[in-house]
């Protein structure tokens, strides 16, 4: 009589008790072989179970079965908690001769790999992560064929127990970041974490900050480039988004496309994005400021057009601008929530209402429409959606300040944003690097995208011991 | 890399940060009036005196550098308290707190009053100052390292304005500079000191010792920062002297504001109030450095009071004080007095510290 035999019968009973009222649990009894089998029918691959296990078991005699259960794919369980977790993770539990074994037969049903809808690129690979972490991990492994790529599994959510994976490249990533990320994930105490975007809010430095402190992406090529640059990556089962740490403000303005295009084109696109940032932040606010307080700033030949356009508008510029900005935000939100076919209708209706009717009805001026529309378009030029949303929110504050105190209000608002940015950190490193701490040598991969032969070093923010990327031939 | 308990990495000021911090503290609203002050005080081609002021600043910084070296980078308060009983130091600390807090508050008030003059004649300037003070408290509480980060960002956001000087090249005439040098000036000692006030701010670097390490290259960085101020001041004033005539300069209150009003783009013109708005960045930095210094000194008087209480208390007191000088000329008169006091601090404090360091060394070697 072994000790396992003493433990196991209660273990089967206890496991069955744990899963009481779970109609999706399958309990198969094979009396001829003395085997009890437990699994969730929806979590496993029936094919794998039948082909790899059951068909073999059914044709085996007692001696062959004993040998069969000694194979390494069978993990012997002694703790019923672990057994329960295994079954929940899509394993099949075998109870044989008083011992309990689990075998991973998890099904890989899920969404197939499709192009990313949030981060589209023109050139470069189109595949995006899926909700299945195993598929997403495979995409990274296929891109980084190195044993130095390490993957650590953690679990979050007291109830949901979702798998979270921490990825890094040994000898390139700084282990302080890896350990800090592991610690923060392990310290999360919350019932459920359902998406990466939720996870990163639970582990960031400044919970009240306006801007995202971790870069998120659905693109495996982007995430692979972060890993190679020495950043640490996190992924979560059930979410198609991965994140990388540490992040800096300017990092959100680069896209994979910049590296796939020729350097001059990539550089111009980068500059364009910073111009877009400038436009989206201050254009409407400047319109409000100038038309409310500083009419002298408008040249003579433009003032007639502007006065004519504003003459029928009954509101002060700040109300006019806020109404239009709000309408645009409503349209954007409606467009984002509606199915794409109806979404197009919203676009057309919104376009006509905003473009034509509002001006004809005398509710707003033509020039404001141009200001609001260009700053909205500019906000979508920013490749990261979370960052773009944060920046659009700032705009409202700046419009209000400009309406209150003109250029002074605008300058105060901008100063507040800068002070806020300077106080922010991402895993303890400055959020505004390479501007402060000032690293001009890194600007060539931030404000422009210099030719690859010039991008020899990894950014200092990662604090990697291995700064040199490699010797690149000219 | 030093990591504190919260996993936050604490870093020392880099060389560039310190230079920018010194530059941003020095550079301020005075530039708008500087050409007029120079032409009134020194007469024709008054701008040539600016490098001389720059040299004086460097000499003063050498004194500060000597304190840094002899004190091995210890905080000045530690050096003082090591040799002099705290009770005796209290009046000095109070004096420092008063001068620094008042200077910060007056610079801010001067800025908002000028803005009120050019754009918002009916708005109460103290309302502007209230919002500005809220920004200042926020920035102050972030600590010197983050202030220096903000200085760097503000620097990049405002330094581009120097490019605007190109607009005046077309109208610049060497004949307006006149062949005479320093003729027609009517300035006395107080006016000379008044111009030196434009350079003040560098002396606060004496409080940054414990935020630096060998990599900061303290003396070199502060000198670079002050040199940048001198170069910028000289360049702008030189162009102003060649743009306006000597007589014009004498009559203008803020020549640089008038200069900026000449800039025209096809879609926007009269940009002086927009650019003046951007000057908020440099003013914020100047003021925050004075208020932060006041807070550092005040913390020595009342060490038990938390930073989060002390900073708003100092700013609030300074805010109340700012009600007293109402007009721009009153503010300028007050500023003159406090700048003179600050000049004494700038020279006197390093000398006192050197004396203390010398004495303690002697004592140590004697025993």
From TrEMBL, chain A:
Instruction: State a GO cellular component annotated for this protein.
Output: membrane
Transmembrane ranges?
A: 271-290, 367-386, 398-421
Keyword Membrane part of the UniProt annotation:
yes
Q: Identify the Pfam families for this entry.
A: GerA (PF03323)
Q: Keywords in UniProt for this one?
A: Membrane, Transmembrane, Transmembrane helix
Q: Which domain of life is it from?
A: Bacteria
InterPro entries assigned: Spore_Ger (IPR004995), UPF0353/GerABKA_families (IPR050768)
Biological process annotations from GO = spore germination
Q: Which family does it belong to?
A: Belongs to the GerABKA family.
Write the protein's name: Spore germination protein
Tell me what organism the protein belongs to: Paenibacillus montanisoli
Taxonomy-wise, where does this protein's organism fall, top ranks first? Bacteria, Bacillati, Bacillota, Bacilli, Bacillales
